[in-house]
Amino acid sequence: MLILSVEFYKGSVDMQKKISSIPFKGTPEQETELKKFIEENKHDKSRLMAVMQAAQEIYGYLPMEVQMMIADGMDVPLEKVFGVATFYAQFALSPKGEYNISVCLGTACYVKGAQAVLDKISEILGIGVDECTPDGKFSLQACRCIGACGLGPVMMINDEVFGKLTPDAIPGILAKFNA
């Protein structure tokens, strides 16, 4: 059954969310914390989302190894855990980098060239949306609105907002973060 589940997981790469190829680096302390939470909730299947939310708080995302722990501990099929993780936007399948870049693709930013900005970031970092660089330094996300429409196109790196962007400005901005 596990092999079938893993094949299901690996075969789902073309889904909207991207699955991280970065090796999982969970600690024994994180595993203990998650297993304790699962143990407290395993008798109520309706608590699956709460367990997944706790797991994401503990690990920062839901890698395959964590999804398997949840499925085993809650006695639910891995496919169900994966289905919930890929359906709800709150769950991430890739880790966040030290510097999390969010590019606004809301209407105002998009019509002002946000896609070209996103494409330039992707080209420089060698990652796509919902991916993290192998060194864990940068992650890239597309979002719908940052709330700075007058500055569009806009991106955020962690909590710092950059506005009125052009693709030509991206190398200099990323250099500030040692890209």
Descriptive report:
44% of the residues lie in helices and 11% in strands. The chain has a five-stranded mixed β-sheet with strand order 2-3-1-4-5, with helices on one face. The longest helix has 14 residues. It is elongated, with a radius of gyration of 18 Å. 26% of the residues are buried.
Structural domain count: 2
Largest sheet: 5 strands, mixed
The first-to-last residue Cα distance is: 42 Å
Proportion of β residues? 5-15%
Would you tell me the overall average pLDDT?
89
CATH class of the largest domain: Alpha Beta
Overall radius of gyration: 18 Å
- Helix tally? 8
CATH topological fold name of the largest domain: Glutaredoxin
Q: Judging by the overall fold, what is the CATH architecture of the largest domain?
A: 3-Layer(aba) Sandwich
Class by SSE composition: alpha+beta
In total, how many beta strands? 5
Low-pLDDT residue spans: 1-15
CATH level-4 homologous superfamily of the largest domain: Glutaredoxin
Write the topology of this structure.
Layout: H1 2-10, H2 28-41, H3 48-59, H4 64-74, H5 78-87, E1 99-104, H6 107-111, H7 114-125, E2 131-132, E3 138-143, E4 155-157, E5 160-162, H8 170-175
Parallel strand pairs: 1-3
Antiparallel strand pairs: 1-4, 2-3, 4-5
Question: In a few lines, what is going on in this structure?
Answer:
With 179 residues, this protein is α+β, with helices and mostly antiparallel strands. Helices cover 44% and strands 11% of the residues. The protein has 2 domains: 26-93, Arc Repressor Mutant, subunit A (Orthogonal Bundle); 99-175, Glutaredoxin (3-Layer(aba) Sandwich), CATH 3.40.30.
